[in-house]
Amino acid sequence: MAVIATESTHFSNVVKGIYKDNGLNFNFETVIVNDPAGTLVIGQVLGKVTATGKYKRAVETAVDGSKVADAVVAEVKTIAGATDTQVLVLKRGPATLVKPNLTLDATYDNAAKKDAVYASLNALQFQLLDVAV
After folding, report:
1. Are 98 and 16 in contact (CB under 8 A)?
2. Please, are residues 85 and 39 in contact by the beta-carbon 8 Å criterion?
3. Given this model, what pLDDT does residue 38 score?
4. d(Cα 59, Cα 65) in Å, to the nearest integer?
5. 17 pLDDT above the threshold of 70
6. Cα–Cα distance measured from residue 20 to residue 27, given in angstroms and rounded to the nearest whole number
7. Beta strand 126-129 with 69-73: parallel, antiparallel or unpaired?
8. What's the chain's average pLDDT?
9. How many CA atoms lie within 13 A of 39 on its CB side?
10. pLDDT (tens digit per residue) in 31-87
11. For the chain, N or C: smaller number of CB within 10 Å?
């Protein structure tokens, strides 16, 4: 059977609530991503490279600091080669995210590795839901 349409993940599939702290909303930031060519999807977990301060997909085997989850992509963005690209991310909470709808690199291949990512996101004041609501 032919595929009629495909639909990418919507922001509301990943983020279920963003809360203001003291009337100010500093949850979002535009960050510089330097990552191999490809498309970042909403909910992709990013890590921050310690030496440059730039972001890339969080990979469990990384030794440059980007192993630690530090942001969640808030817009679909295509990256053309390893160039610096501005990307809107959800940088800190308080916010509620749907854990199964986050996009992790394949190197996070067991529960212990995934739990480390979730702990990093919890430290950024993200509440993680185990199921979609």
Report:
1. yes
2. no
3. 84
4. 10
5. no
6. 8
7. unpaired
8. 85
9. 6
10. 999 988 789 999 999 999 999 999 999 999 999 999 999 999 999 888 887 789 999
11. N
pLDDT at 8: 62
HSE-CB for 41 with a 13 A CA cutoff? 13
Please state, in angstroms and as integers, the Cα–Cα distance from residue 6 to each residue in 2, 3, 32, 94, following that order.
11, 7, 28, 31
Token pair in block for residue 86: 């501005």
pLDDT band at 14 (very low <50, low <70, confident <90, very high): low
Residue pair 102/45 in contact (Cβ under 8 Å)? The answer is yes
